[in-house]
Specification:
15 helices; alpha/beta; Aldehyde Dehydrogenase, Chain A, domain 1; 6-stranded mixed β-sheet; binds NADPH dihydro-nicotinamide-adenine-dinucleotide phosphate; Aldehyde Dehydrogenase, Chain A, domain 2; single chain; 2 domains; 478 residues
Length: 478
């Protein structure tokens, strides 16, 4: 069995390893991945610190070349990497390849950005004096990522971090280290100097904590749960360090009476159940006005009945397994909680057995739910959604915004007036009209409000806000 090591100071470093299990076939081990120690994390941080002065002043063409080379290799290997992703996380092969292509696009975009980092020159209010405003790398950046987008999220943190001249220690989720290992291997071979990029796989409580507690880490970009995000925020504030958090969602999809029914059903089924509902942008609250409610529910149930839940890499699979037993237990617990609260299970919610032993769950649709139920207030992070019946647009908007989260929000309507009003008044960071709530393009900002996000946006040119620091310099003609 191949053992995949950590990359520290340009060397592949071994240690205790753990099995990476395929959730579609839990008897299958994808590979053994090293679980780093606190000492590994400290060595990685020291290596990143030592590499920072040279990398932060490196020729932008050098940074461009590495990122471009990485983009090309990811693209060339998209089927293989997509297969790895589907095997370790449980997304379908098509979703895995799509996410891999997204990772390549992100590296391609930031390869270009490395050559486009501009500043400003302004006349001072003092005669004969000019002011320059420039952006510089922040320093050693700690990147901590979750299991649900195992190639896209590491890519959207790694590419801008390296593009702007930072050095990196990355810790992927213990559950899905394979895609990050592959990305780091690609970047390492693309020509990064030793210590610029360090990979320390392992547990959050060991490796993650060491990164978070280190005074030598100048910035932390984190995606994951609200609980872990809060801990990172507290530790970072104590150290006066820059940090950025992307956390959960309880995203609403509003369906108005005048919506195109097919579009609304597509948006709901895609947004709530594809990627097994394991998306921070999943539309888990379907807020539907009276006159279309029954037709919409019947059409969603009909569509769900035609979907195939099976092994992620099998032809014809629409929805892969849940990522592991513990997430499956959480999904089943919420299904019981919703039942107990009086919601009606209108479809699914059953464990499924397939040819290969995996964590299969039939998508669950609840009706007759209220926005006060735990089902509609807490993030399930699985293929479980609740329909909330409302009387009109105004009530729909108010219910949509009545949540602790604010990542993504959608509306399906033919009314320009309501679409415009929703774009303006939704309290979410990303708004979709007649489109699923999931995902935004790689060149535009991703992020939310309220309990979903904290700090600067990720992706696109907005990434420079986090991965650079601004300097204001004065010069007199003398
Ligand atoms: P966790 O917060 O449990 O884990 C995220 C990462 O943090 C993992 O690498 C984990 O390590 C690490 N970690 C855990 N404890 C600590 C700690 N004390 N110090 C430092 N690092 C730590 O989240 P999940 O992996 O369960 O991810 C799912 C969550 O991510 C969901 O809530 C989802 O909404 C959110 N998410 C948000 C997105 C967004 O952009 N808003 C996008 C995607 C997901 P390990 O697991 O290896 O122990």
């Amino acid at each position: 069995m191949t053992v995949f090591n950590n990359l520290i100071a340009g060397e592949w470093v071994g240690g205790d390893a753990t099995d990476n299990i395929n959730p579609s076939d839990s008897d299958t081990v994808i590979g053994r991945y090293v679980r780093g120690s606190k000492a590994d994390a400290k060595n990685a941080i020291a290596a990143a610190k030592a590499a920072f002065p040279a990398w932060s002043r490196s020729n932008p063409m050098a940074r461009h070349a590495v990122l471009r080379k990485a983009a090309d290799e990811i693209t060339a290997r998209k089927e293989e990497l997509g297969h790895l992703l589907a095997s370790e996380e449980g997304k379908t092969l098509a979703e895995g390849i799509g996410e891999t292509v997204r990772a390549a696009q992100i590296f391609d975009f930031f390869a270009g950005e490395a050559l486009r980092l501009a500043g400003e020159v302004l006349p001072s209010v003092r005669p004969g004096v000019t002011v320059e405003i420039t952006r510089e790398a922040v320093g050693v950046v700690g990147l901590i990522t979750p299991w649900n987008f195992p190639i896209a999220i590491p890519a959207w943190k790694l590419a801008p971090a390296l593009c702007y001249g930072n050095t990196v220690v990355i810790k992927p989720a213990d559950l899905t280290p394979g895609c990050t290992w592959a990305l780091v291997d690609i970047l390492h071979r693309a020509g990064l100097p030793e210590g610029v990029l360090n990979l320390v796989m392992g547990r959050g409580s060991v490796v993650g904590e060491t990164i978070v507690q280190s005074p030598d880490v100048d910035a932390i970009s984190f995606t994951g749960s609200v609980g872990t995000g809060s801990k990172i925020a507290e530790a970072s504030v104590r150290q006066m360090r820059k940090f950025q958090l992307e956390m959960g969602g309880k995203n609403p999809l509003v369906v108005l009476d005048d919506a195109d029914l097919d579009v609304a059903v597509d948006c709901a089924v895609n947004g709530a159940f594809f990627s097994t509902g394991q998306r921070c942008t999943a539309s888990s609250r379907l807020i539907v006005t009276d006159a279309i409610h029954d037709r919409f529910v019947a059409a969603v149930i009909a569509r769900l009945g035609g979907l195939t839940v099976d092994n992620a890499v099998k032809d014809g699979t629409d929805i892969g397994p849940v990522v592991d037993q513990s997430q499956l237990d959480q999904d089943m617990e919420y299904i019981e909680v919703a039942r107990g609260e009086g919601a009606k299970l209108a479809f699914g919610g059953e464990r499924l057995n397939r040819e290969t032993p995996g964590f299969y769950l039939q998508p669950a649709l609840f009706t007759e739910t209220t926005n006060a139920m735990r089902l509609n207030r807490e993030e399930v992070f699985g293929p479980v959604a609740g329909v909330i019946r409302v009387k009109d647009y105004d009530e729909a908007l108010s219910v949509a915004n009545d949540t602790a989260f604010g990542l993504s929000a959608g509306i399906c309507t033919a009314s320009l007036k309501h679409a415009c009003d929703f774009k303006r008044n939704s309290e979410a960071g990303m708004v979709m009209v007649n489109l699923p709530t999931a995902g935004v393009d790689f060149h535009v900002p991703f992020g939310g409000r309220k309990g979903s996000s904290y700090g600067a946006r990720e992706q696109g040119r907005y990434a420079a806000e986090f991965y650079t620091t601004v300097k204001t310099a004065y010069q007199s003609a003398g």
